[in-house]
Every structure is written in structure tokens, then in C-alpha cells.
Amino acid sequence: MTGTKDQFRQAATARRRALTGTPEKRELDAAIAAHAARTIAALGVEGPTVAAYSPLPSEPGGEALLKALGEVSARILLPLSLNDGTLRWAPLRPETRPDLSPDLRPGALGILEPTGPHFPSTVLSECDAIILPALGVDRRGNRLGKGAGYYDRALVESSISCPLIALLYDDEVHDALPHDAHDIPVTAVITPSQKFLELREPE
């Protein structure tokens, strides 16, 4: 498939919309969440800090993601979207896990966000892994987001040395995607069938 960023976004959004609310999606999300948790556990870090996100109903990971990550992470940071186009980050309080609902409220974009103290994106330098949303990723790690640039700006703000992992459905990994110079590539993807696919720049 070839096309512009907007064409890829429209195709991915349509596929996800058709999948939302189905038993198939729940099965796929359970597999993604389990793979993500095993990936974090395999880092070999005692008490890892992980930045993740609260999936929308159409996004990979679903309701299973944060619960699965909570079983293997000492600290989970979730983003808050600000009106100026930037992200801040707040931890889930340990006492709310595994029942996360008391600690999450809909934010400005309708995404569930933590209610506690929040920090600038420089806090990402403390992470052992960062899990990002995406509509697609190619074999070079180019990530297709929704176009607002929140995550690219957040990653630029911090010194990142940990894995950047995108969660996708299997048909959202592409040979090549259109990208811009300011786009920050991811280092790996997790899909229902791929427990951890490391991405490399071609030699």
C-alpha cells in the first residue's frame, strides 16, 4: 500500500472502527497486553518505570493493557494532553491497582488520565520503556500517529535511552510509511502475533 499520511490514517481508522467492540478485538487486545507485560518483565529491571497510555476503545491493548502492565511495573506514567499541544505525565497510584478506575478521569481529549500530580516530559528520562500509541509503523521504525505531534514533541524534550515500543494490530506493520524529518522513530512493535519485533535501520 502506498499513499499519504492522511490516507494511511484514514485506512487504519476505518479498520479499527470496524473491529471495535467485537469479540475478536478483545482477544487481540488480550494478546497484545500479555506480550507487553512479558516484554517489560524481560527487561530484567527491578521495579521498572514504564510510560504508557490509556487506550481508547478503538486502540490496541484495550482495557487489558494497564492491568497487565501494572502486574510487572513499579511505576506507570500516563500522559495528560494540554491545550498548548504538549503532554505532561502523571503516575498511577499503586493503591489503585489492579482496579485502576478510581485514579482515572476523562481528560480534554476524552482520554482517561490520572488525577494525581503531573510532571513535564523530561520525566520520561526515568523510564525503562515507553509504550506509544500508533496507527502504523514501518520496518524502519517510522511511526504514524494521529498528526498532532504530541509524542514527537514530548520525546524531544527528554533524553531517551530506553526502548520505544508501539502497539499495533498485525496489518498495521508496513514495509514503508511516509514520514517527516521531525518524526521520532520507535525501536520495536508489539502485535497480537509478534511478541516483540525489533526494528532496525537498513544498512
TrEMBL record:
Keywords assigned by UniProt? ATP-binding, Ligase, Magnesium, Metal-binding, Nucleotide-binding
Q: Which residues form the signal peptide?
A: none
Q: Choose any GO biological process term that the UniProt entry carries and state it.
A: folic acid-containing compound biosynthetic process
Q: Does the keyword Ribosomal protein apply?
A: no
Q: EC annotation?
A: 6.3.3.2
InterPro entries tied to this protein: FTHF_cligase (IPR002698), FTHF_cligase-like_sf (IPR024185), NagB/RpiA_transferase-like (IPR037171)
Q: What is the protein named? A: 5-formyltetrahydrofolate cyclo-ligase
Task: Provide the species name.
Answer: Corynebacterium aquatimens
